[in-house]
Design a protein that fits this description.
The complex is a heterodimer of chains A (about 850) and B (about 240).
Chain A (H helix, E strand, L loop, with lengths): L1 H14 L4 H35 L4 E5 L5 H9 L3 E14 L2 E10 L9 E4 L6 E4 L7 E5 H6 L7 E4 L2 E11 L13 E5 L3 H4 L8 E8 L2 H11 L8 E4 L6 H38 L1 H9 L4 H42 L9 H26 L19 H19 L2 H30 L8 H11 L1 H35 L7 E6 L4 H10 L3 E2 L3 E5 L1 E5 L2 E2 L14 H5 L6 E4 L7 E6 L4 H5 L4 E5 H6 L7 E6 L2 E13 L10 E3 L10 E7 L5 H10 L4 E4 L1 H39 L1 H13 L4 H38 L8 H27 L3 H8 L1
Helix pairs in contact in A: 1-9, 2-7, 2-9, 2-10, 2-20, 7-10, 7-11, 7-14, 7-20, 9-10, 9-20, 10-11, 11-12, 12-13, 12-14, 12-22, 13-22, 14-20, 14-22, 14-23, 20-23, 21-23, 21-24, 22-23
Chain B lengths: L2 H5 E14 L2 E14 L3 E5 L6 H8 L7 E6 L2 E2 L5 H11 E4 L11 H11 L5 H11 L15 H13 L5 E5 L7 H18 L2 E6 L2 H5 L3 E6 L2 E7 L7
Parallel strand pairs in B: 3-8, 3-9, 6-7, 7-8
Antiparallel strand pairs in B: 1-2, 1-4, 4-5, 9-10
Helix pairs in contact in B: 4-5, 4-6, 5-6, 6-7
The chains are: A alpha+beta (about 850), B alpha/beta (about 240).
């Protein structure tokens, strides 16, 4: 029988809107968690997949020497797929033109991950294929077609072999991004290597083996391989690569995570406030039911059923809306990223439902227990059981729950702890400030009977309740301001990385005597360009005289810091410079002294990430082997390098007194437009040894992803704004009964409607403005910390939010509050009296 | 238990209620003794703060006495826990309150059905409609309390009080919140229904005129039973 009654009561309460805020809060928490966790999971999976594409495999083994055949044989025993690759340089000859090309010979299985993009002719559209050329034919990059004056179907001599030119090679998945291999690329079938006779004993060649399989197979295989590896063999995984795109997406993911945490926090506050209010509204019915003989058990069953129903419905609604939103979001992102996003697993479903359940249970537990304890005597003594103050147990339970929710969602204890502790601190500060402000308000001598004095009197009268309201308002406004500013900063930072005038072409292999004429050529043709950097390769051979053994780079996952990505086995590109490049910051030591600029002692500035890898400290002497010639340099500074920019960055920068000691080529970057094509062909004809790397597509991709991720961030922000509004509404609603009572009294005493309305408006405006001001101050300070710690963005104060905070707070709070109270005031006094009875 | 006490549907003996305050223990009711026969109508009168509402709460088992006991239809309330007292109320007691105490989310009909539904009575609807008919609200069955006037709300409360045919009806200032016209209507309705059902009525009021309509009047003053007088309806009973 009680079930029928419970359903009846539930449907009525739901229709009366009593459960709306609880419903919305749970649904919002669920949909926030669901949409964010599935989108970030899908983007994460996509990044991993994309990163695999970057090396055309899951793992890669590189060496300058041929591999033991056993390595390949063994890999098939572990169930891995493999491909072989060989890089070498060889002369190409056609139409009386001779040019040096970079050849990549691959087996039919290449690429294991990603696609090769080709064209049927120079003018036809490009398309993707799964494997390279058949034996007997070659695919050439566009630059070679111009240099050798070739067209599809022509023949080209490559080394000693004659090959049919069958396709225009546009891009391979592992095409060099920042490497020096130029735009004269040749893709050849592995079986054709002997025909070319280009690979002889002592030839400079690079061998690569590519592997793919599942993580278990790969790590089992690596366990076998590790002891077999020789010092000249290098095992690379997907995380060993740096990409500005990856960095940005990682940053976006962090933002989404943070926003999600805020969304949950706000939804949780709304839930806690509305659950308490809902239970308080049930005090009278429960007392009545008890008086009429309802047993505690029946009453408990009725309200637990209510809670279960509202929880079930709101989780279902949250999941449904979340699913639709994430599908739209992921489809949109997929279109712009040009790839289908992999499906997220079951985790977002479970995680979000679990969070919804926890929210519902923990925030309503204490209010429900209080409700069951309401004495029947309340029917005679009306205020029995009323608890004006929030109980400590409810507070403690709510805080613990919020902490656990944040932890579960983020999976990161440190971020959770920082955010949680700072929030607690904010609450404590806010409570103190609010009490002080209300006390100070008393000394304001305002004309009695004015709306302002009524507003201030009301604020003071409910000082405690207002302090709680102020805290939730301020918290909501703080989190919203926080995200708005962070979003603006992150996006501005990204846009700065890829400004509209960013160079889209790298020019490499420029000989020293070509620098001046090329620079002149750029200037004559109005082509914007960067400085010309001297470039040479060198290997770190010793530190303070101790020979540095070439290490096998670590298996991914063993070390997570950035240093591991760079490794030290590579021969980095080095330069010398007299000024610190943009995007670099000295973290330790000094930029080159006069000695380094003019004296004999060579100084070196090292990227922070290499400090630990090489176990370096200021004053150490590094021996670099440049073309087998040892160069000694003293470490005088360490630098933080922003790898996120699409600008040339260097691990080691030597002092300018290096000039003349080693042979170098120069490097520059230019912003080319379509109208420059003709001029560039002329340039390439005139200086055939220089190479150009087109990074237009990378820039376009980065820009489109930034645009899309900004959109995703905007979407998340709007979820947080809705959560914030919910908090405000739940708070105003919680105080509505008391306000109604006041309105009735004031009306009965003859106060004009206008006076009451204005007083309400001013009260909310004051509350909103104070909350907004405090929120602005606190969020600006917190932003400073978070930007530097979490997002590696240069933190700065944002004076505009000091105005925006109070203004938006006043407008937001007063409009919501006024709207809700105004509805009440439209009723006549008698109607209100009856409602209050 | 004696035959006399069996006839007495309410037996109050040595009833005392003390509450602790910041200033120490405060005695609200002291050593109250009286009994009410089955079918009798009794008014409890006294000034504000005299303790009459506290007495009502003890009689109905809404609160527990510090000393003494209340026997309600043979059951000693002091020996019962909260749950058992709720059962007694469900089986034997009906209530009418000054502030109506209707559940806002239920219609007039559902409010009347509520006690029966809580007690698991499946025949509640038919009985509730009959009662609402008796109080003249047939046309208001599906209305919510906020859509009813004060007088109408109290009539719903009276109909609710009689569902399940309780042995005893407690009424706390039933007409105090109403204008005189509606107040008289309610009082008449209450006494009429009481007579029809043969219910024992215990009415708390400060209205001497209303009290006189009962058979006996218990005067409470400063927490003590001052005297018991005969009401205007004494000879009718």
């Amino acid at each position: 029988m009680w079930v029928k009654l419970a359903f009846k009561l539930f449907s009525r309460e739901f229709r009366r809107g009593e459960l709306t805020i609880i419903f919305a809060a749970i649904a919002l928490a669920v949909l926030t968690v669901f949409s964010l966790s599935s989108i970030t999971e899908r983007i994460g999976l996509n990044i991993a997949q994309k990163s695999s594409d970057f090396i055309a495999a899951d793992r890669r083994l590189s060496s300058n020497h041929a591999f033991d055949p056993q390595i390949l044989i063994k890999s098939s025993e572990f169930g891995l797929e493999t491909a072989k690759m060989l890089y070498f340089d060889s002369m190409l000859f056609a139409n009386d033109e001779l040019v040096l090309g970079s050849v990549k010979a691959t087996t039919e299985t290449y690429p294991l991950r990603g696609k090769i993009i080709i064209k049927d002719s120079l003018t036809s559209p490009d398309y993707e294929v799964d494997s390279g050329p058949k034996a007997g034919s070659v695919w050439l990059s566009e630059g070679l077609f111009y240099t050798l004056d070739l067209k599809i179907g022509d023949q080209v001599e490559l080394g000693a072999g004659l090959f049919n030119v069958s396709k225009v090679l546009v891009k391979e998945p592992d095409a060099p991004f920042f490497s020096l291999s130029g735009n004269k690329r040749v893709l050849l079938n592995y079986d054709d290597i002997p025909t070319t006779q280009a690979v002889q004993a002592g030839s400079r060649v690079f061998h690569r083996l590519l592997f793919s399989g599942n993580e278990q197979q790969l790590s089992d295989y690596y366990a076998w391989l590790k002891p077999e590896l020789k010092s000249n063999q290098n095992w690379e995984g997907i995380k060993d690569r740096q990409s500005p795109l990856g960095n940005n997406l990682e940053r976006a993911e962090r933002f989404l995570l943070l926003a999600g945490l805020f969304g949950i926090m706000l939804a949780a506050v709304a839930m806690a406030v509305s659950a308490k209010r809902y239970c308080e509204r049930q005090y009278d019915p429960v007392a009545m039911m008890k008086t009429l003989g309802g047993s505690r058990k029946v009453i408990r069953n009725i309200f637990l059923l209510h809670l279960s129903l509202v929880t079930t419905f709101s989780i279902a609604a949250g999941l449904a809306i979340g699913f639709v939103l994430q599908t739209i979001g992921a489809d949109y992102l997929a279109t712009f990223m040009g790839t289908e996003l992999p499906q997220a697993g079951i985790r977002p479903w479970l995680l979000s439902s679990f969070i919804g359940l926890i929210c519902a249970m923990m925030f309503s537990l204490k209010p429900l227990l209080d409700l069951f304890d309401i004495p029947p005597l309340r029917v005679l003594r009306r205020n029995l059981g009323d608890t004006l103050a929030v109980s400590r147990l409810h507070l403690a339970l709510s805080f613990i729950t919020i902490f656990v929710l944040m932890w579960i969602f983020s999976g990161e204890i440190i971020t959770t702890l920082i955010l949680f502790a700072s929030t607690l601190l904010v609450i404590a500060i806010l409570f103190g400030i609010s009490r002080l402000l209300f006390a100070a308000g008393r000394s304001l001598g305002l004309r009695p009977g004015s709306s302002w004095s009524l507003a201030i009197a009301t604020l003071q009268k409910r000082a405690n309740a207002n302090a709680i309201q102020l805290i939730s308002f301020a918290l909501a406004i703080k989190l919203m301001l926080f995200l708005v500013v962070l979003k603006t900063d992150i996006i501005a930072d990204w846009q700065m990385q890829v400004p509209p005038d960013a160079p889209n072409m790298f020019i490499i292999n420029i000989a020293e005597n070509e620098v001046t004429p090329i620079e002149q050529f750029f200037n004559e043709n109005n082509i914007g360009h960067e400085a010309f950097y001297p470039i040479f390769s060198g290997r770190v051979d010793a530190v303070n005289g101790d020979k540095f053994a070439r290490r096998v780079s670590k298996q991914e996952g063993e070390e997570k810091d950035e240093d591991a990505k760079e490794g030290v086995s590579r021969e980095p590109n080095l330069t010398w410079l007299d000024t610190l490049p943009e995007g670099n910051e000295i973290t330790e030591g000094q930029w080159f002294s006069d000695e380094g600029l003019l004296g004999d002692e060579i100084e070196v500035s090292v990227f922070d990430g290499w400090k630990e890898s090489l176990d370096l400290k200021l004053g150490d002497t590094i021996t670099l082997l440049v073309n087998e010639q040892p160069i000694e340099a003293k470490v005088t500074s360490f630098r933080d390098v922003d790898w996120g920019t699409l600008k040339p960055n260097f691990v080691m920068i030597l002092s300018p007194n290096m000039a003349g000691l080693v042979p170098v080529t120069y490097f520059s970057a230019a912003k080319l437009q379509d109208k420059h094509t003709q001029d560039i062909s002329q340039l390439l004809q005139r200086y055939p040894t220089i190479s150009m790397i087109d990074i237009k597509s990378q820039i376009e991709q980065a820009q489109s992803i930034i645009a899309q991720v900004s959109l995703a961030i905007g979407f998340v922000l709007s979820i947080v704004l809705v959560s914030g509004a919910l908090v405000l509404i739940s708070q105003v609603q919680a105080s509505l009964a008391e306000r109604m009572q006041e309105v009735v009294i004031l009306r009965t005493l003859g106060a004009k409607g206008r006076l009451i309305k204005l007083a309400t408006l001013y009260e909310f405006m004051l509350l909103g403005a104070i909350s907004g001001l405090v929120a602005a101050i606190v969020s600006d300070v917190a932003l400073l910390v978070i930007q530097q710690q979490l997002f590696s963005i240069k933190g700065q104060l944002h004076p505009y939010i000091w105005l925006l905070g109070p203004f938006s707070g006043a407008v937001f709070v007063s409009s919501i509050g006024y709207f809700m109270v105004a509805r009440t005031m439209r009723q006549n006094t008698q109607g209100l009296l009856r409602k209050l009875a | 238990m004696s035959v006399l006490s069996q006839l007495n549907v309410i037996q109050v003996s040595g009833l005392t209620k003390r509450v602790s305050t910041l200033e120490g223990s405060l005695t609200i009711l002291s050593d109250i003794n009286f009994s009410v026969k089955s079918g009798e109508s009794v008014a409890i009168v006294g000034a504000s703060g005299s303790g009459k509402s506290t007495l009502l709460s003890l009689l109905a088992g809404l609160d527990v006495a510090s000393e003494g006991d209340v026997h309600l239809d043979g059951e000693a309330l002091s020996s019962l826990d909260e749950e058992a007292r709720a059962r007694v109320r469900a089986e034997k007691i009906g209530f009418v309150f000054q502030s109506f105490m209707l559940v806002q989310s239920l219609t007039a009909l559902e409010n009347v059905m509520l006690p029966a539904e809580l007690a698991g009575d499946h025949d509640a609807k038919k009985q509730a409609i009959e009662l609402l008919e008796k109080v003249g609200l047939t046309h208001r069955l599906e209305h919510y309390p906020s859509q009813l006037s004060g007088g109408e709300q109290q009539r719903v409360a009276i109909a609710r009080a009689f569902i399940g045919s309780p042995k005893i009806l407690f009424a706390d200032e039933p007409s105090a919140n109403l204008d005189s016209k509606n107040g008289h209507l309610i009082e008449t309705l209450l006494f009429d229904l009481n007579k029809q059902n043969g219910t024992t009525l215990v009415l708390v009021t400060h209205d001497e005129q209303l009290a006189k309509q009962c058979q006996r009047i218990i005067h409470i003053e400063g927490g003590q039973l001052e005297r018991i007088s005969e009401g205007g309806a004494a000879n009718v009973g």
